[in-house]
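Treating backbone geometry as a discrete language has practical consequences that deserve illustration. The sequence in question and its structure tokens are set out directly beneath this paragraph.
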Amino acid sequence: MTVTDSTGATSAQSAPAMVIVVEDQTVSVSVSPGYAALNVGQSQLFTALPSGASIPYIGYQWYVDGTAQSGQTSSTFNYSPASAGTYSISVILTNSTGFPLVASSTATVTASVTGTQTPTPTPMPTPTPMPLTTTLPATTDNSSTVDLSISGNITSSQMSNVAIATNQSAASTKLSFTVTGESGTTGFGNITIPISVVAYGTTPTIYIDGQIAPNQGYTQDSNNYYVWYTTHFSTHQITILFTPTPNNTPAPTQNPLTAQKQTATQPNLLQAVIFGVLVAVAIVATVLGALYWYMGKNKSGKHPH
């Protein structure tokens, strides 16, 4: 904003204002049709039907039995099974804000060998889209409970040992939990963390089993942090570490989860050096003592002529 007086002179100009828009996370999606029976070699067109979103979706990824299908990134997926069996068809959606609100639903395909009689499938009810946002309780340092909002295809039943811990000396806050899922599948998680529970630190970094997660990010407003990440399922320890905002010139990269362990090994190295010096001094003193004794003995053993 610019302020101008009656003469036309500019007297002040404000700094640009920043507006953060956060997408409503109460969205859902279904896959149509929810069930299909076909022969090997035939194909079925599936369609993703999102609802409850005010911002259009631009990112789609289709999966068969948890495996991402290369190039299948539109709102429809034409699937042709290569062999007989039962397959799970699912889709993940991302909206145009760049904030990874994730929605998923699953359909089932039963494929038979051509020429065999296909049994008439039992009609299945149309799946009811489930709200993606659920609540996850977390325990704090003083044993109180804080409710965190989560969304994505990682559910609260797959998350355990959820705890929030603060470290005043390190000026950091840590949210940690364990996630478990079917091996070979991919998990997408979004967590809403109230700023009021982050006593120290302002910048969140996500670690999976002590290593920085390759796919992660966050946004924030005046009330919450919105943190997201992806992981390849089995069982993993997830840590969201809030640390002070880094300087303009960052220090060398170091995993803060292992820094304490590395520091603890330094006194052991110093002790080893001191011990080695003491041993060397003892050896030198022993050699000099023996030499002095030997020279004294030879001197006393000589007789005058």
